[in-house]
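Folding Task

Wanted — backbone structure
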Amino acid sequence: MKKTVAAVFLLIVSVITCPFIKSQSEDSVRQIQLSLKNVVDLAVTKSSAVKYAQNQNQNYYWRFKNYQARFRPQLTLNGDLPDYENTTARVQQEDGSIKFLQVSSLQTSANVSLNQSIPQLGTYVWASSSLERFQDFIGDTSSFSGSPFSIGFTQPVFSYNWMKWYRKSEPLVYEEANRDYVQSIEEIALHATQRFFRYLMVQTNFNLAKSNLKNSEDNMKIAEMKKKLGKISENDYSRIKLSVFNARKSLNRARMDLKNADFDLKSYTGIDQSENIDLEMPLNITFFKIDKEKAIEEAKANRKETPHFKRRLLEADRQLAEAKSNNGLSATLRGSYGVSKSDHYWDGVYDHPKQSKIVKLTLSVPILDWGKSASQVKLAESKRDLEIFDVNKAREDFERSVAVQVEQFKLLKDQLTTAREADKVAGNGYKIAIRKFQNGEISITDLNISLSERESAKRDYINSLRDYWEAFYNLRILTLYDFQANQKITYQNPLLGNK
């Protein structure tokens, strides 16, 4: 009898001390320890999402460069080298009759032009020099014609000036794109944070499931010894045995969830799938005060909404101006001045050329359109008024969302402190409950209650940590401002280098 009691005592001691001993197999598995900062840094530098954001920002960069180049002088060389023809052609004679004759000729031409736009006026000016050679193989003749120098312009009168509006809108598009790029990076950081805590929660569930299975198996061993001694009822023994089966099912489910979360986190951050990772609890939390007015001010200064709202109002004004310009007289004035000449030799083209002048005015006046033009103006005015209303409402909603996020961030301190203390209390309570159950002082029901309280407190604590860090990054997204460092958030696009 004494030997049996001693064996039970040794088994209880081994069960109590076993959870504190690591197996050699666990020590031999190499794991990468990753903090929340490590995961966020990987996501904003290596993920496919950040590469997409970089390429999109690069696209807008070259769009803006193209816009700037459109209003700079353009030097162009055009020509036909050669234009050979050997066929039967329809040729009109001097008396107006038509003859079909064999034609065999070679034409070559070249034209150098310098073009410049004047966006403020909508004017297009140019200067050019051209030379053309024609050779008739049937008549065995050749001649030259050209314009050594000519200048010209095209000037819309009372017409819609698209260049003026284009120059106003494109800088806003580029500014909006640059702010959107920074915002996209911060959103990637938030998505990485969400995946981090999903993995951390699943990892915690997996560790809890392993611990629960270990404790259930240890309790089962003790229950078997007690059954042999007749010190446990069949009902309690069956419930302990059932807890082992439930613990195994929970562990299998947690293992599958961990694999899915592991794949998702590695895919998003660019970590090799063969690596074993272990996440560290992000406890390095610094609570700092945020002034609501300061947050709103930084949001308006840094977010893409500010240029976006300006561009929406500008687009409404542009559509109204276009509708009004189509409601009355519109004209286009074209003119050119230069010198030109023809000769049998190319240098003769430049010997005392004659003046060449052209002036052309094209008019368009609506006479009867059954109210079409007037209705287009009224429609554009109505759309403009509606756009002003929508923009003002969107601006108010945006500022309100920033203010709400600041207030929510302030409330997280007490929530996180309470959850941390509850986790400590529940963890210590479960350890005590294990010892008491193994000593026969409490029932399996009380042990399960303590287990449930420990797991619930642990999950609540992780959820509180997640709420804090998500609010932290949401605040950065809404303001594009780092309140810890007291500076504006900026990111360089590596695809643009030093451009």
Q: What stands out?
A: The radius of gyration is 40 Å. The longest strand covers residues 98-118. Residues 195 and 203 are 12 Å apart (CA to CA). Residues 162-229 form the longest helix (68 residues).
